[in-house]
Amino acid sequence: MIAIALSAVAPGLALLSYFYLRHELEAEPLGYVIRSFVAGAVLVFPIMFIQYAFVEEGVLTGPFWQAYITTALLEEFFKWFMIYYTIYIHKVFDDYYDGILYAVACSLGFATLENFLYLWVYDSLEIAIWRAVLPVSGHALFAVVMGYCLGRAKHSTRERLWLFMAVLSATVIHGTFDLILILEPNHKLPAVLYIVILWMVALLLVRAANLSNRRQFK
Which regions span the lipid bilayer (predicted)? Predict the structure, then answer.
């Protein structure tokens, strides 16, 4: 049980540490980062209940609807909602990279608890490895895209557009990832290649956010 708990929690904490350290300005208050992480974890149970209700009622159960609506849109909207009302509207959110950091923290809180519950049921080291490579890292990468848009929204005259793009972009890339897994359940290579592409995009967005900070706060 201890091994499963560690293998469930370690990927999320490792990824959060990485993105926390990529912030080139002063370090964000750790308490707020932890708050976002916990807020994401709190979302797991209500989202699981809603998804269970969709399945039981036979609503939106096709591959497309399951990938983009009952999973991606539902999860990304609630994460966006939580980030907006717990962090975005407060003064601690004050630079371009903050969006990435707090979105990643919230998303990894969700992914970590979800991963723990999954591994508690299946209790497999092989599954733990694949979940670290795919779903957990995937949630972090979806959050980078959402967070970049949130950071832009905070400093843009078109704030509402960027806030909308935060939800839309995360939903599209998350839904595409889930659709790949649904259509190719026995082949991990397409999903792994997709994650590699998302990592390249995420690193470019991290660099762009830090560059915007250097330009604005130099």
Answer: 6-21, 33-55, 67-87, 99-121, 127-149, 161-183, 189-209
- Does 68 have pLDDT greater than 90? yes
Q: Which of 10-14, 80-84, 123-127 comes out lowest in average pLDDT?
A: 123-127
Tokens describing residue 131: 């979940």
Per-residue model confidence as pLDDT tens digits over 141-196? 999 999 999 999 999 999 999 999 999 999 999 999 999 998 987 778 899 999 99
Helix (H, G, I), strand (E, B) or coil at 123: coil
What pTM, to 2 d.p., does this model score? Answer: 0.92
**Positive/negative CA dihedral, 183, 186, 190, 191:** positive
Structural domain boundaries, residue 88: 2-217
Strand, helix or coil for residue 7? helix
Residue 11 to residues 17, 56, 108, 174, Cα–Cα distance (Å) = 10, 32, 9, 19
Number of C-beta neighbours around residue 28 at 10 A: 21
Pair 119, 46: CB distance under 8 Å: no
* Total number of domains in the chain: 1
Do residues 218 and 103 lie in contact, with contact meaning Cβ atoms separated by under 8 Å?
Answer: no
Q: How far is CA 93 from CA 5, 83, 215, in A?
A: 32, 10, 17
Contact 131, 114 (CB under 8 A): no
| Type of residue found at 68 | Y
What secondary structure does DSSP assign to 84-152, as a single string? Answer: IIIIITSTT--SHHHHHHHHHHHHHHHHHHHHHHHHHHH--HHHHHHHIIIIIHHHHHHHHHHHHHHHH
